[in-house]
Specification:
The complex is a heterodimer of chains A (about 450) and B (about 575).
Chain A (H helix, E strand, L loop, with lengths): L8 E2 L2 E4 L3 E5 L8 E4 L2 E9 L2 E6 L12 E3 L5 E4 L7 E2 L15 E4 L4 E2 L10 E2 L4 H4 L4 E2 L3 E6 L5 H11 L4 E9 L1 H13 L6 E7 L10 H15 L3 E7 L1 H14 L13 H9 L3 E2 L5 E9 L8 H9 L2 E7 L6 E3 L5 E2 L14 H23 L6 H18 L7 H15 L9 H7 L6
Parallel strand pairs in A: 9-16, 14-19, 14-20, 15-16, 15-17, 17-19
Antiparallel strand pairs in A: 1-7, 2-3, 3-6, 4-5, 4-7, 5-6, 8-10, 12-13, 18-19, 20-21, 20-22
Chain B lengths: L2 E8 L2 E6 L7 E7 L2 E11 L2 E6 L11 E8 L1 E4 L7 E2 L13 E2 L13 E6 L6 E2 L4 E7 L2 E6 L8 E6 L3 E4 L5 E4 L5 E4 L3 E4 L9 E2 L11 H6 L7 E5 L6 H11 L4 E7 L3 H10 L16 E6 L6 H20 L2 E7 L1 H14 L13 H9 L3 E4 L5 E10 L9 H7 L4 E2 L4 H5 L12 E2 L5 H10 L4 H25 L6 H18 L13 H16 L7 H20 L5 H22 L1
Parallel strand pairs in B: 8-22, 20-25, 20-26, 21-22, 21-23, 23-25
Antiparallel strand pairs in B: 1-2, 1-6, 2-5, 3-4, 3-6, 4-5, 7-18, 10-12, 10-15, 11-14, 12-13, 14-16, 16-17, 19-24, 24-25, 26-27
Helix pairs in contact in B: 4-5, 6-7, 10-11, 10-12, 11-12, 11-13, 13-14
The chains are: A alpha/beta (about 450), B alpha+beta (about 575).
The structure holds adenosine-5'-diphosphate and magnesium ion (MG).
């Protein structure tokens, strides 16, 4: 970037850390972008005459005489329908070898939606996966992450879900994803024929980690543009939010902020909420649905990143390998969709809530039986039945490879219950039993 | 008026060089083009004031001008607060145009152009103290009392009062003369700083009456008293919000103030959506009529989270001062504590545990201390019952917000991850949770009289069965099904019966979601009676299928209207389960 004739060039850096530099400068605006010897940077602190800049690609090799130029502007993005089908980096620059997009420039910080202008999200978003549609039903305007053990194929499943769900537009934000996964997204998108409805902002593990911090704002600004100005049903994919939070921790650490739990900044909750709360259903019809990925360490969901995420999002889909069958499933216990109440039993069949709950309760009994077995105790007749049930439930419903309709999921649920249990063991409302309980097949 | 200029910016913390006096907690405004961005002074050193910005502040620069207001953060108190949806600073959200909130955008809390039908209730010459009633206007189902503003001191003589008729909020409705002979004009609106408790009452009572929530596990097993306090800690997803919203729907308070503090916007939207339709059990009118919402969701400015809980409390105290029974709910108080932490860290204060500010316990104690049932000098009673949720990091209750709250709140509703995983809702842990009010003699006397004789003993008996059952379960899991006496299985299943038939309650079922006290006492008696009845079993699997049959019937009863034919039918079937049990074992 070349400095224009009017912009002063500063060349006296007073302090350098691994991620920041401090210098004296006047008339600087908080959040403003700048360049330090051509490296992108942003103002993160003003104190008297001193200005502290965060340098996205790090400070290795920078001298105290580096040239600092301020842009006069906070991060912004060019918005246009022509973004569709394109790939950009964390600064919104094209990385697909095509021309830069022309259009309106917009500040990426965005504003808060007035809560009274939000519509209650209540349009079902089907995926064909029973761990989602049956147990944790999604709706448009919802925000939900996959909590995934790192060895799970979370990005592939994310791409699959995105392509199966009904949407007008997909905006992908890749933060620290592997180059292989980036290519996988690209191939899946192109192969589905939906490539031209997708906008991607990509920071791979080969790019500087701090640049990740810019991705969510670009993604959300783009999503808001399509949802507000074009009333589209937008699906946002953010992966991996754990790497985003790690980058936040680096910055706050360099700023000498006192860390709270797990070395994360005390503002982690607010930082993540600002992104996730962009999910919205507008009255005019547009919506933003956010499906994210938060990778876990050792399946620890009490770590500050998944923990704060769970407190913000409208549920979580806990992706894991079922030890009994080896299948990838969405764990019925820790997973949750908080907005399922808005659709299950009303937009889906009336028996949905009770069938879903009964199946999960039986699955919980199975898990008790399993730990009994692990502790070396004899299993009673009921224990043996629930264990058989749990395996069938996993194979016939929970397996994420399956792709079936919600009514079929409910029918399978009833068949499973009648195969292994008596009516009185279920506690389901009598009127539903009368209507749906299948005849025992001999 | 004091003015200043910004000299430092770190996220939402501003350093301002001032040219004159400033007050701690004074409100100031940053002038940015057309915008006036609101901030609150939180520390002063020399001629530098540190202020927390209540709004998004992108684009601020060193040198930007700041104006000081001279006032602390205040709310407007007057007719029309009910049914309103406010942000954390008491802006009326409905009155703001557009889908998005712009920085610096503001709107009046009350409808200044509306007319209210004023009826004078005091006479010329009356000597009035702060909080004494001057007149009233109708507001939804209530008679909204117009009181001598709380800021008045000593005795004030009423020298003029408006005739009955319609007035706007800013019209003068009375004049008073204070002890110094100064004359003041009064309108129907007054302002009050949110951090100061409204203390026009004469005495505060020890809570003694039940505050009904419609939830069995609360009203019967861990009751909250009117004017009492409770807290609900739980990991995410364990049911804090659903529980609070269930209470917001099923209570019998006259005024409900709901503070959504730093949580999800869609949860508030759910209330906006349902409350205009749902019926208030106390009056038969719509729930919206008695409800005011204060909403500062997680993406709204962090500093306003703290303001939001105080704004809610101040409005609650205002209606209490009129003599009403007010319920205040805050979800989640941890977000407020986190906002304090963010700011304290930016100010580089010496941190306490988990980087929370050291004064956190005192701040929480003061806040809970504002709840209570009180009596005004003229004999009218009012109450603020307060329930706050707590969101402990990692679901671990050993953390500063949970611990500080435990010292001041009298009821503890511990949400258990394990229960939530198994969909045993509400996931209130029956053994960990408690209500201190159960030990209050006045409270016991009240239940004996209003619910039934021997009530407290029955409640304790149910709790004993639960405790014994959980012990038995532990023994069974250590020793194995076959190696324990049959009694252990029976004890365990009795506790399961109480859990499934009584504690668990479906907040999404139209019938089960709310249980009256009469119904609760019927069910408790029925469950206890069954636990007492003689039962014969040959082996442990017989025990479980026997109790599962009972549980299934109890659940069907819970899903049926009280005293409906279905209810009666299922109730009678309970007895036939017994007769088959006895026949089987005799045969
Ligand atoms: N009493 C209940 N009955 C049925 N489902 C419940 C109940 N409480 C919680 N849930 C389920 O758990 C989810 C999370 O509850 P919520 O109150 O939002 O949790 P928290 O506020 O503790 O994070 C709800 O969306 C609902 O699916
Ligand atoms: Mg909640």
């Amino acid at each position: 970037m070349i400095a224009s004739a009017f912009q002063p060039i500063y060349t006296q850096i007073k302090a350098l850390t691994k991620a920041t530099c401090t210098l004296e400068a006047g008339g600087v605006q908080y959040d403003e972008l700048a360049w330090v010897d051509g490296r992108s940077a942003q103002v993160i602190r003003v104190e008297g005459k001193n200005v502290t800049l965060q340098i996205f690609s790090g400070t290795e090799g920078l001298g105290t005489n580096a040239q600092v130029v301020f842009s006069g502007k906070a991060p912004h993005l060019t918005l246009s329908p022509l973004l569709a089908g394109r790939y950009f980096n964390a600064f919104g620059k094209a990385i697909d070898g095509r021309d830069e997009v022309q259009g309106d420039e917009r500040d990426v910080k965005g504003q808060t939606v007035n809560p009274v202008r939000r519509q209650l999200p209540s349009e079902l978003l089907a995926t064909g996966i029973a761990g989602i549609d049956l147990n944790n039903t999604l709706v448009t305007g919802q925000k939900i992450p996959f909590f995934a053990d790192p060895d799970q194929p979370y990005n592939r499943i994310l791409a699959e879900v995105a392509l199966r769900a009904d949407s007008d537009r997909i905006v992908l934000g890749g933060m620290g994803i592997s180059h292989d996964d980036f290519l996988m997204f690209q191939q899946k998108f192109e192969a589905s024929g939906a490539g031209d409805k997708i906008v991607s902002y990509i920071n791979t593990s080969e790019d500087p980690p701090l640049e990740r911090l810019l991705i969510p704002d670009l993604v959300c600004t783009t999503a808001e543009y399509f949802a507000v100005e074009r009333q589209e049903k937008v699906l946002v994919l953010l992966t991996d939010m754990t790497l985003y939070a790690d980058a936040l921790a680096i910055v706050s650490n360099k700023m000498d902020q006192i860390p709270s739990k797990d070395a994360m900044p005390g503002s982690l909750y607010s930082d993540l909420a600002r992104i996730y709360e962009k999910a919205v259903q507008f009255k005019e019809g547009g919506s933003i649905t956010i499906v994210a990925v938060t990778t876990l360490n050792d399946g620890d969901i009490t770590h500050a990143i998944p923990d704060n995420t769970g407190y913000i999002t409208e549920g979580q889909l806990y992706l894991k390998k079922d030890p009994e069958t080896g299948l990838t499933i969405i764990d019925p216990f820790r997973s949750l969709s908080r907005l399922k109440q808005n659709v299950i039993g009303t937009k889906t069949r009336e028996d949905h809530p009770q069938v879903m709950n009964a199946l999960v309760r039986l699955y919980a009994d199975a898990s008790e039986a399993r730990s009994k077995k692990e502790n070396g105790f004899d299993l009673n007749e009921y224990d043996l039945r629930v264990l058989k049930f749990a395996e069938a439930y996993t194979r016939e419903l929970l397996d994420v490879q399956l792709n079936i309709g919600t009514d079929e999921m409910l029918d399978r649920g009833w068949r499973l219950m009648s195969r292994y249990f008596e009516v009185f063991e279920l506690g389901i409302r009598q009127n539903l039993i009368d209507k749906y309980w299948p005849e025992k097949t001999a | 008026m004091t003015k200043g200029r910004i000299t430092g910016i770190l996220s939402n913390l501003l350093q301002i060089e001032v040219n004159d006096t400033v007050r701690q907690n004074e409100i100031c405004f940053v002038l940015k083009g057309e915008q006036r961005l609101m901030a609150e002074v939180i520390k002063i050193t020399g001629n530098i004031a540190f202020a927390q910005l209540f709004e998004a502040g992108s684009g601020l620069q060193a040198g930007d001008e700041v104006e000081f207001s001279g006032d602390l953060l205040e709310v407007s108190l007057g007719p029309g607060l009910l049914s309103k949806n406010f942000d954390g600073l008491q802006n009326d959200l409905e009155a703001m145009p557009g889908n998005f909130i712009n920085a610096g955008q503001r709107s009046a809390a009350l409808n200044l152009e509306d007319e209210y039908a004023f009826t004078p209730l005091s006479e010329i010459g009356a000597k009035l103290k702060a909080g004494d009633i001057i007149g009233e206007v109708p507001e939804n189902a209530l008679s909204h009392k117009i009181m001598l503003p709380f800021k008045f001191e000593g005795e004030n003589e009423l020298i003029e009062i408006a005739a009955p008729g319609n007035y706007k909020l800013r019209d003068t409705i009375a004049k008073v003369k204070n002890e110094k002979g100064e004359v003041f004009e009064l309108t129907m609106v007054q302002k009050w700083p949110v951090k100061w408790p409204i203390k026009t009452y004469q005495q505060k009572f020890r809570p003694s009456e039940i505050f009904q929530t419609g939830l069995r596990v609360i009203d019967t097993l861990n009751p909250i008293a009117e004017g009492g306090t409770a807290y609900i800690p739980g990991a995410f997803g364990t049911g804090k919000t659903v529980l609070q919203q269930a209470i917001a729907k099923n209570n019998r308070a006259e005024v409900v103030i709901l503070v959504a503090c730093g949580e999800r916007a869609n949860e508030v939207v759910e209330i906006f959506h349902s409350f205009p339709e749902l019926e208030d059990l106390a009056t038969g009118r719509k729930l919206k009529d008695k409800t005011t919402i204060v909403c500062n969701t997680s993406n709204m400015p962090v500093a306003a989270r703290e303001a939001s809980v105080y704004v809610g409390m101040t409005m609650a105290e205002y209606y209490r001062a009129m003599g009403y029974k007010v319920l205040l709910l805050a979800d989640s108080t941890s977000r407020w504590a986190q906002a304090l932490r963010e700011m304290s860290n930016r100010m580089e204060e010496l941190p306490g545990t988990d980087a929370f500010p050291v004064e956190l316990p005192a701040v929480i104690a003061n806040f809970y201390g504002r709840a209570g049932k009180v009596q005004m000098p003229d004999g009218r009673n009012g109450s603020v019952t307060f329930l706050g949720t707590v969101s402990p990091a990692g679901g671990n209750f050993k953390e500063p917000v949970t611990e500080s709250t435990s010292k001041v709140a009298r009821c503890f509703y511990a949400l258990s991850q394990k229960r939530a995983d198994a969909k045993r809702y509400p996931a209130i842990d029956p053994l960990l949770s408690y209500s201190r009010y159960l030990d209050y003699e006045e409270f016991q006397a009240f239940t004996e009289e209003q619910i039934e004789k021997g009530w407290t003993d029955k409640v304790l008996k149910a709790k004993n069965i639960l405790a014994k059952g959980i012990e038995a379960r532990d023994q069974i899991s250590i020793l194995g099904d076959d190696s324990v006496p049959l009694d252990y299985h029976r004890d365990f299943w009795k506790s399961e019966l109480i859990d499934f038939a009584f504690i668990q309650q479906d907040s999404f079922d139209d019938t089960d979601m709310n249980s009256s006290i009469e119904r609760q006492s019927f069910m408790l008696n029925r469950v206890l009676q069954i636990c007492d009845r003689e039962q014969e079993f040959d082996d442990f699997s017989e025990v479980s299928s026997f109790y599962k049959k009972l549980i299934n019937l109890f659940k069907q009863m819970n899903y049926s209207d009280f005293d409906s034919d279905d209810f009666q039918k299922f109730n009678q079937e309970l007895d036939s389960v017994f007769s088959t049990n006895l026949q089987n074992t005799e045969a």
